[in-house]
Specification:
heterodimer, A: alpha/beta, Nucleotidyltransferase, domain 5, five-stranded mixed β-sheet, globular, B: alpha/beta, four-stranded parallel β-sheet, about 45% helix
């Protein structure tokens, strides 16, 4: 069976094609204003990558915040369900998943079959999402990789107290004006986000093993902050931003 | 939409409920035309006491009014903007802002200019109540205002021998309220120039006990599967006790409603014909977006009620085995009220025993009650509201979530505001509901 999962995220769209459970094609494109066009574009790239045509696909499942826009999908499923299904297929002993995307973060508790037992989502505030890291990196005139590397060099803890992304940004600007070391500011940003994510994750009572997925999982500086905050070791899959798409493709089966 | 499995029909008394509610708001607006008086205050303001001034004294309770404004999202937004333009903070109680906004815009949610009350009668039960009408009095250009401090302390205690919360009234606390009520009656006579009729107070007290007990008894009938009532409809029905719990017509309406709901249970009439799962909620909903309840129904999921819709105006007794039942009224225990002092004492004790009021002291009673509701009303899950429009009732929601999850009850939460639509994200909330329904196997 050839199945396809499309994860319509707020920042990027991920497509993954499975042929009898084996990954044969994938793609990631930026989410543009015309989300349906972006979804089609991502699918075309993944199909090219897999050397296939759309007619070769037996089943398409859409997930992510914009899943309902994909009018050519056979089925849609929530991000929470797809994340759980995707991670359990790779790491069957994972009990808790933390997914940090561009505009939303979620923590999910699942059983051995990938069934969701409990979940919590971040509230409307952007200060616990990937978009906040990107905004702070821009404010510091650094790439995301540089931002993460600087963070790892710091040995200081500077609290950012604001609960709101806008106010947090103004605190960062104040730190810049005070000539605070760049590495310390980067770490302070990661620590602040880690504190918010940890608070959300604790709502479902974290149980090990814990997987960290979503684009932010690739940020080693943030990973370091979250490890210190939650005092757990994380499993980070090789392609952490494709787990939702993988789960969607598996749900097709 | 899932398939219908139960018969359903419209509530026979639905139209009467609408008429009664419209008449209540109209009576308030036109009170002066009939030579009557208008007073405004909170839904917990013990309307039985001003009832002693005569049958032509009409109240406007602020919380149901604030909720009515919220249903009209455009009007609510104009109210909030008017309030913010005057310099009030955006994070204050959103009912209060809807009320103040109506004064500032001079617009009544039910048409015409905002009717100015003749006096303000309030109980200070949460952090906003006392200040709400103090400021309203100022905005109205100054008017008589009396406020009873209704926060004498926690009414219940945990009984280890039976493992339940049980009433533990304390004489000095009841006396503290009775003294303020007695002073309030003197004040009412002075403020209105009217004599006070203790017989009317006594009848209003009997009515108060009966409406609030009857509402709890009606909620109890929703233990049946299928549920005869859904929460969205219950919001239109519980409100009478919040409008004027001492009103004779509302007692009669609740008797009629109870008979009808009993009949629905007997005949297996469902509120939701495709009922496959049952959930409960916790506190006030976002009134401008009650469509979320209809969205739940597309999954075959009915909300059977909430800690809020059950206890805000329903008075309960917790039996020794933990069963929740409508509270036995003084009259059903054979108590005959003979004078003002006794009426006030019984009212003080009755209203203090409200389970909703425990939220201002601890989150633990709410957690315990929600677990009881989930079990006794056979709920499959719970949806909690981080209500940014009401600090008092939102305090403890995170602890409630933990307690429910620990009790094995699936739970999710959303963020919103009961009265300020600008703080509610419908798409995001529906997405959470999708995830919750899917996790409950309803998708």
């Amino acid at each position: 069976m050839i199945s396809c999962g499309i994860d319509m995220g707020g920042g990027s769209i991920k497509v993954l094609i499975l042929n009898d459970g084996k990954v044969v094609g994938k793609s990631m494109v930026e989410t543009e204003l015309d989300r349906l066009a972006s979804g089609k574009k991502a699918l075309d790239i993944a199909l090219q990558n897999a050397n296939m045509n759309k007619s070769d696909l037996d089943y398409i499942v859409a997930t992510g915040a914009g899943r309902k826009i994909i009018d050519f999908a056979d089925k849609e499923s929530t991000t929470v369900a797809c994340d759980a299904r995707g991670i359990i297929s790779l790491y069957p002993d994972v009990k808790t998943v933390i997914d940090i995307g561009a505009d939303e973060a979620r923590s999910i508790k699942c059983d051995d079959s990938g069934k969701v037992v409990d979940f919590a989502l971040n509230e409307k505030c952007a200060a616990g999402s990937g978009a906040f890291v990107e905004a702070m990196a821009r404010a510091m005139q650094l790439s995301l990789d540089e931002f993460a590397s600087f963070s790892l060099q710091s040995t200081k803890s500077i609290p950012i107290n604001a609960q709101c992304a806008i106010f947090a940004e103004s605190e960062v600007v104040s730190l810049v004006h005070e000539e605070t070391d760049r590495a310390d500011i980067c770490k302070a940003v990661h620590d602040a986000i880690a504190a918010r994510i940890a608070s959300m994750a604790r709502r479902i009572r974290i149980e090990e093993k814990v997987a960290l997925i979503g684009g932010v999982a690739k940020n080693k500086g943030f990973l370091d902050s979250l490890k210190r905050e939650l005092k757990v070791e994380f499993i980070v899959p090789a392609d952490p931003d494709f787990i939702g798409a993988l789960g969607a493709a598996l749900l097709a089966g | 939409m899932s398939k219908n499995i139960y018969p359903t029909e419209k509530l026979k008394c639905w139209d009467k409920a609408k008429e009664l509610r419209e008449k209540y708001y109209r009576d308030y607006a036109t009170a002066h035309e009939k030579g009557g008086l208008r007073w405004a205050g909170g839904a917990t303001a013990s309307d039985a006491i001003p009832a002693g001034l005569g049958d032509d004294v009409y109240p406007l309770t602020g919380e149901p009014y604030g909720a009515s404004v919220a249903v009209d999202q455009k009007f609510a937004t104009r109210c909030h903007e008017a309030v913010e333009e005057k310099g009030y903070a955006r994070d204050l109680c959103s009912y209060m802002r809807n009320y103040w906004g109506s004064i500032l815009l001079n617009e009544y949610a039910f048409g015409g200019p905002f009717p100015k009350p003749d006096f303000l009668w309030q109980t200070h039960i949460c952090c906003s109540h006392g200040k709400w009408y103090q400021e309203a009095a100022r905005l109205e250009g100054g008017m008589p205002y009396y406020c009873i401090d209704w926060s004498p302390g926690f009414y219940y205690k945990w009984d280890d021998t039976i493992g339940q919360y049980q009433p533990a009234p304390q004489g000095h606390r009841i006396q503290y309220l009775v003294d303020q009520m007695q002073e309030g009656i003197t004040w009412l006579q002075k403020a209105t120039g009217r004599p006070y009729d203790d017989e009317k107070l006594i009848q209003a007290a009997y009515n108060t006990f009966e409406t609030t007990s009857l509402w709890a008894q009606i909620c109890t009938l929703n233990k049946a599967v299928p549920a005869p009532l859904d929460e969205k409809s219950m919001y239109s029905l519980y409100v009478f006790a919040a409008l004027q719990k001492s009103k004779k017509e509302f007692v009669e309406f609740y008797r009629e409603l109870k008979d009808e709901v009993e009949d629905r249970v007997k005949r297996g009439i469902a509120a939701l014909p495709n009922e496959k799962a049952r959930i409960m909620t916790d506190i006030q909903p976002p009134w401008g977006f009650l469509s979320i309840f209809r969205y739940l129904e597309t999954f075959g999921c009915v909300s059977i009620g909430s800690f809020y819709s059950f206890t805000l105006m329903g008075l309960w007794q917790i039996e020794k085995d933990g069963t929740l039942n409508g509270k036995e009224t003084p009259q059903s225990k054979g108590i005959e009220i003979v004078d003002r002092e006794q009426a006030l004492r019984l009212l003080a004790d009755w209203l203090l025993s409200s389970l909703m009021a425990t939220l201002f002291y601890t989150h633990q009673v709410k957690s315990d009650m929600m677990i009881k509701i989930a079990k006794q009303w056979r709920c499959d899950g719970a949806i909690l509201h981080y209500n940014r429009g009401c600090e008092g009732l939102t305090l403890g929601v995170a602890e409630n979530r933990m307690a429910l999850a620990d009790a094995g009850i699936p739970v999710t939460s959303y963020e919103g505001n009961m009265g300020d639509e600008r703080e509610f994200d419908l798409a995001n909330t529906k997405d959470r509901i999708d995830s919750f329904m899917e996790s409950m196997g309803l998708k």
